[in-house]
Design goal:
Layout lengths: L1 H22 L42 H13 L2 H5 L21 H9 L28 H11 L3
C-alpha cells in the first residue's frame, strides 16, 4: 500500500514538473511567454453560463483570411498550449482537449480563464471535470491582441 502511495506521489511530482517546464519560457521565447504575476483581486467570477452558441452559419470571428488562422495557430504553438492540449486539440495526460470549447465557454470567460485560471478555482468552472486532470493550468501573459486572436480561433475549433 505504501509503495502504491509513493508511486502516485512520484507521478504527481513528475506531472507537475513537466507542466512547470513546458509552461516556462526558454531562450528566444522568454519575452513572448511569461507567466503573469498574481493579478489584483477581481470580483468573483460567476459560475453560471449566460452565453449561447452562435447561430448556424455565423461568421467565423477569425474571418476567412488565412493569415489570421496562421497567426492564431502560431500563438497556440509558441504559448506551449500544444504541450498539454495537443496539436490536434485532443488533449492528453495533463490537460483536456479543446475541440468544441465554444459549447461551454464564451469569449469573455475563456479570455479571463487563460489570463488567470485560478480566478475560476472556487466557481467550479473548468475546461474539464474529468478527475484525471488535477493540475491547474498556469496563467499566461500575452498581448491582448494575441490573446484575442487565440481565443477567437479556439472558439471555432
Amino acid at each position: 500500500m505504501r509503495a502504491h502511495i509513493n508511486l502516485i506521489s512520484l507521478g504527481a511530482l513528475l506531472a507537475a514538473g513537466v507542466l512547470f517546464l513546458t509552461a516556462c519560457p526558454s531562450g528566444d521565447d522568454a519575452g513572448n511567454n511569461q507567466q503573469a504575476a498574481a493579478p489584483a483581486a477581481d470580483p468573483a467570477v460567476s459560475s453560471g453560463s449566460s452565453h449561447s452558441l452562435p447561430p448556424a452559419g455565423a461568421e467565423n470571428p477569425c474571418g476567412d483570411a488565412p493569415a489570421a488562422v496562421e497567426d492564431a495557430s502560431a500563438i497556440y504553438k509558441t504559448a506551449n498550449c500544444t504541450m498539454c492540449h495537443g496539436e490536434d486539440f485532443a488533449g492528453g495526460a495533463l490537460a483536456p482537449g479543446l475541440s468544441n470549447i465554444a459549447a461551454e465557454w464564451d469569449k469573455a470567460e475563456l479570455t479571463k480563464y487563460i489570463k488567470d485560471p485560478s480566478k475560476y478555482e472556487d466557481s467550479g468552472k473548468r475546461l474539464s471535470h474529468d478527475p484525471k486532470y488535477t493540475i491547474e493550468m498556469p496563467p499566461f501573459a500575452m498581448s491582448d491582441d494575441d490573446l484575442n486572436k487565440l481565443v477567437d480561433w479556439l472558439l471555432t475549433r
